[in-house]
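[User] Once you have settled down, look closely at the record that follows, and write a paragraph about the fold.
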Amino acid sequence: MSQVEESIEVGVPVHTAYNQWTQFESFPEFMSGVERIEQRSDTLTHWVTSVDGVHREFDAEITEQIPDERVAWTTVSGEARQAGVVTFHRLDDDHTKVMLQMDFHPDGITEKVGDKLGVVRRQTKGDLERFKSFIEARGRETGGWRGVV
């Protein structure tokens, strides 16, 4: 199992950053390698990804969701094994720190070499930077789900 931790400060209120993160179907707009996400229920998402020619489909279950604080998940079926949490930290009225922690299991020699070379860490950092650009350019979320899991 490998781990990655990255964070970024975004220039929006905590509720805006959190609300946008709950809009899983918009992830392809800022996450590289994510082709499609389908929200199948309040707690189940289906992911289709393609990273460096490796195509994967898997289901992830939201295991904990607390508005303006955290979203945690784990894969429950398919071709990927990972679990993680994204937390949201209010810095002031207009700034939020978004922290992502993820455990993942690289499968096959290509993913294991990529992991050793820091590919997942760089991709995660890039995804957070694109999230920052996406939410700051809009200035508001595309939607939000405020339920508790």
Q: What stands out?
A: Residues 10 and 133 are 8 Å apart (CA to CA). The longest helix spans residues 119-138. Helices lie at 14-21, 108-116, 119-138.
